[in-house]
Design a protein that fits this description.
about 325 residues; alpha/beta; eight-stranded mixed beta sheet; 11 helices; 14 strands; about 20% strand; globular
Length: about 325
């Protein structure tokens, strides 16, 4: 099963200031702020929702196709993804813009000052999925994640016109989209991904009830944080899957992307929705135990031992044969 994942490709530049921002602000001079902070630490991390999802799928051996836009500074990132099983031949490289990046400074009170540069991500709207499909020999599913909003709309319309099954996954972009855009993006989706808060926001912005949305998508996949995930399909019993026990909780960033990576990999293996959700929850647990979205490792024996403990021998037998 050939799965393409569209969405953002970015790097995060995260800095730590040992003092307090509030101590540097002068109340009657806030209209003309000019400050710089000497920081203690700088972490540069690979990110972007599409790249995060593809990284996890690559570790699971499902050879995802990354579709997005990056800058000429993407070479090292590309090499990293290639080495971890991601097909990067469909990444568009901008001739004039850098790869998107998030630059953030956090103070001792955990206040943050950050900026997001969209950069090359704005060129994702120029990517034609037909060219991607022709190059890789066809597409069985396209996961349309947070990206340049115009790119998300164009990818969705192209999937409909070419009868390519697609998953709608708005995540961070849902806040800036209006009801009409969301209605366009989800109508006819094979899968609709969201967390609980986003689920309510989708219903509020579209004006559609839960039942109406279920009538317009194949499956609605709602992540529930520490409670796992719920999968709904109109006229069928609800599937609920819990999370494996965490060994530690280091950093929640990227947990949703890891779930999607595991779930999509399960679909590629053909193990069914419940098993796919279990794989997603197991991979998400590995990520929450690690600082960074692509810093975790997947050791087959360790993964299967924990998966078996969480979901039982029968579930493990269905998954083990696919895990490389």
């Amino acid at each position: 099963m050939r799965i393409a994942v569209t969405g953002s490709i970015a790097t995060d530049h995260l800095m730590t200031f040992p003092g307090r921002f509030a101590d540097q602000l002068v109340a009657d001079q806030l209209h003309t702020v000019s400050l710089s902070f000497l920081v203690d630490n700088l972490d540069v991390r690979r990110g972007g929702v599409a790249a995060n999802i593809c990284f996890g799928m690559g570790l699971l051996g499902t050879e995802p196709i990354l579709v997005g836009a990056a800058g000429s500074d993407f070479d090292d990132y590309r090499a990293w993804l290639d080495r971890h099983g991601v097909e990067t031949g469909s990444v568009r490289i901008s001739e004039v813009l850098h790869t998107a990046r998030f630059v953030c400074t956090t103070d001792a009170d955990h206040n943050q000052i950050g900026s997001f540069y969209t950069g090359a991500m704005s060129e994702a709207r120029l990517i034609e999925l037909k060219s991607v499909a022709d190059r890789v020999g066809g597409l069985d599913l396209v996961s349309i994640g947070a990206d340049d909003p115009e790119a998300m709309l164009r990818h969705t319309e192209e999937c409909r016109s070419r009868n390519i099954p697609f998953a709608a996954d708005f995540s961070q972009q849902i806040a800036r989209m209006d009801g009409e855009e969301i209605r366009i993006l989800l109508d006819g989706a094979t899968y609709l991904f969201s967390n609980e808060y986003e689920k309510g926001l989708i219903e509020s912005k579209t004006g559609w009830s839960d039942e109406e949305i279920l009538s317009k998508v194949g499956h609605r996949v709602t992540t529930l944080g520490s409670r796992g995930v719920r999968i709904e399909k109109a006229g069928e019993p609800v599937i609920e899957v819990g999370c494996p026990e965490e060994e530690t909780k280091a950093d929640p960033t990227g947990v949703g992307d890891a779930f999607r990576a595991g779930f999509l990999s399960g679909l590629a293996w053909g193990v069914g929705l419940e098993r796919a959700a279990q794989v997603g929850c197991m991979l998400a647990t590995l990520v929450i135990e690690t600082v960074g979205t692509q810093e975790y490792t997947l050791r087959r024996t360790h993964f299967m031992d924990r998966f078996t403990k969480a979901y039982g021998d029968e579930a493990a037998a269905d998954v083990r044969q696919h895990l490389v």
